[in-house]
Amino acid sequence: MSPPHVAVANHKGGVGKTGLAQGLVTAAAEAGQRVLVVDMDSQGNLTRRLRARVPQAPEERAHASLASVLQRPAVGEVERILVPCGYDDPVYSERITIAPGHLELELLALTAGTAASEKRLLRALHGVSDAFDLVVIDCPPQLLSHQIDIAFSAADVLLLPCEPEYDAVESARRIYERIDRDRHTLNPDLAVAGVVPNRVRSNLVVHQKRLGQMSDMWGLAVCPVHVTELVAIKNQSENAQPLRSDGTDGRKAADTFRDVYDWARPRIDAVMGRA
Ligand SMILES: Nc1ncnc2c1ncn2[C@@H]1O[C@H](COP(=O)(O)OP(=O)(O)O)[C@@H](O)[C@H]1O
Ligand SMILES: [Mg+2]
Fold first, then answer.
1. What is d(CA 275, CA 267) in angstroms, rounded to the nearest whole number?
2. What is the CATH number of the domain that holds 233?
3. Number of structural domains in the chain
4. Pick from 165, 189, 117: which is nearest to 14 by CA?
5. What domain range is 180 assigned to?
6. Residue from 233, 249, 252, 255 whose mutation best tests the ligand 1 pocket (most atoms within 8 A of CB)
7. pLDDT tens, 67-90?
8. 272 C-alpha to center of ligand 1: Å?
9. What pLDDT, in 10s, does the model give residues 33-49?
């Protein structure tokens, strides 16, 4: 059976998509899962934060990335560019495999009009993703772009990290609206499995208010585990090391993502009708 393909998305940038993706894939690896990471963001932040072993020379790097695979992918072509996570601990390096992002992912928009071009990732992953227990796709902060169409066409479910603040909630709501509106043309089976509150500061009245609004709108899809503002998460985006290596705060962050993963995994299966 094909593993769940989970896209991490939100129209807004800086809400913690890449942080959630990093936290979830490392939690899944700690739980013994083999994880395939697909970096669909041209910034390549997740590729760097997982220390994917990509070539150093710029011209080689483009060819060894998802940007080159997705130009005109053969079935299963993603295999050609897969690299391991570069963390020292084999728990991560042996279980996390990455399809690296690259800035030329943005050029895919130039060929958006060609037949079935939004199915390119689906085609490139075909057969290859079956060797994994989980596929996580990190998305760019976009809504109607060709890159999002490509990511959403290959996904079974979405996870939406969301700060409990007006702009982020609205941006998540627009993702819900879009998958609903474009259901028949884009991906008939795509559903939101969960919304993960991030950077929560429970002492803020505005956060309490927005968390209430999120529950009213999305009910059980809102993850009861809240990711708080943690220095270790900020550090991870700088030092590109496993959260667990960053002292007490790092272990707290990693334990939080483990709890998010433990909540999300059965929910993903349930939303996919596999429970
Ligand atoms: N819970 C958190 N605590 C501390 N810093 C965070 C948290 N979530 C995100 N950040 C920081 O905010 C910035 C944006 O997060 P990132 O995951 O890159 O967002 P996105 O992928 O949505 O653009 C990064 O510097 C990241 O370290
Ligand atoms: Mg990101």
1. 8
2. 3.40.50.300
3. 1
4. 165
5. 5-271
6. 233
7. 999 999 999 999 999 999 999 999
8. 28
9. 999 999 999 999 999 99
